[in-house]
Amino acid sequence: MAGVEHEAAAAPGPGVSLMPRLIKTLGGLAALAMAAMVLAVAVGSVAIPVSGLLGVISGDADALHRTLVLELRVPRVLAAFATGGLLAVAGALMQVLLRNPLADPYVLGLSGGAAVGALGAMLLGLGTVVVSGSAFAGALLSTVLVFGLAHGTGSWTPTRLLLTGVVVAAGWGAVITFMLVIGPTERIPGMLYWLMGDLAYARSPWPAVVVLALACALIVPLGRSLNVLARGPLQAATLGVAVRPLEWSVYVAASLLTATAVTTAGTIGFIGLIVPHMLRLVFGSDQRIILPASALAGGTLLVLADTLARTLIAPEQLPVGVITAMLGVPTFLYLLYRSR
């Protein structure tokens, strides 16, 4: 009984001190996100001055600025922000579910299933809408496959789920390689860009934006239960958390968020791994702060990375996944060095 009381006392409570911290943290990250989005809209192969942006808002801008801002850059910036937020929140959830700070949204093979679906549609010469739908269907198929194989005839553990995901991801990788080998030469560049992550294919940002908003509204209130779950299933059950339903909910939510992100922009690495990890180092491990902060920080990071991808060798564009990898690898190595 004393042990239970000790755990209950150690578990994060609703205390009064959380709200000021939450407002301060999210307010700062929201301001940074707004600045990044304004910068992304203004910068590009054609720079738009502040007067041009104000003219677009007031309706007095010329046709070129209006087309650039409203039809090209704003949708892409929104898609980048929503995709980065989805990947970061999914990464934070997977790290709690697997109780592993190095887990990321792709660790269970979702990106491989989505890639097989998308590349299959590209090989058949189908349109962008069908490619996106096929990617989403492939990600969901991978989710069901991994969960079914990991569950088997009994229960699943984080280790079993992780190992099953690694094996399924390897299988998807073999299928992807085969499709690239047999694919027509003229379609290979588009397929490679999709695999590296490219927001040029993000036609409409609104599905990702809506899913991110719903995720924040539905998942963030579970932050207290996730704090307890991160201690382990036995402690969580002792403190009254329904462990198995919560783990299923986290797995399904992370899978849907990842599937939506991959459908929107292809496979973009390191966002879901680096962002939650860095936020925990700065703000601690309270999921009530980490989850909404991940949405804002992940979105901001991908907006800035996409801005670099558009401008680094303008008028040519790089796949944004190349930029996130170039930023993510040294950052991750530095974090590993710091955590010794």
Describe this structure in words.
- By secondary structure, the chain is mostly helical.
- The protein has 15 helices and no strands.
- The chain has helices spanning 2-10, 18-42, 50-58, 63-97, 110-123, 128-151, 158-182, 188-196, 206-219, 223-229, 233-238, 243-265, 271-283, 287-311, 320-338.
- The protein starts with a helix and ends with a helix.
- The model is unreliable at 1-16 (pLDDT under 50).
Distance between the termini: 35 Å
Element-by-element helix/strand order: HHHHHHHHHHHHHHH
Overall shape: it is: globular
Q: Mean pLDDT across all residues, rounded?
A: 85
Q: How does the major sheet shape up?
A: none
As a percent range, the share of strand residues is: under 5%
Kindly state the number of beta strands.
0
Note the total helix count: 15
Q: Classify the helix fraction into a percent range.
A: over 70%
Computed Rg: 21 Å
Specify the structural class. Answer: mainly alpha
Poorly predicted ranges: 1-16
Task: Detail the topology: elements first, then pairings.
Blueprint: H1 2-10, H2 18-42, H3 50-58, H4 63-97, H5 110-123, H6 128-151, H7 158-182, H8 188-196, H9 206-219, H10 223-229, H11 233-238, H12 243-265, H13 271-283, H14 287-311, H15 320-338
Characterize this entry briefly.
Helices cover 76% and strands 0% of the residues.
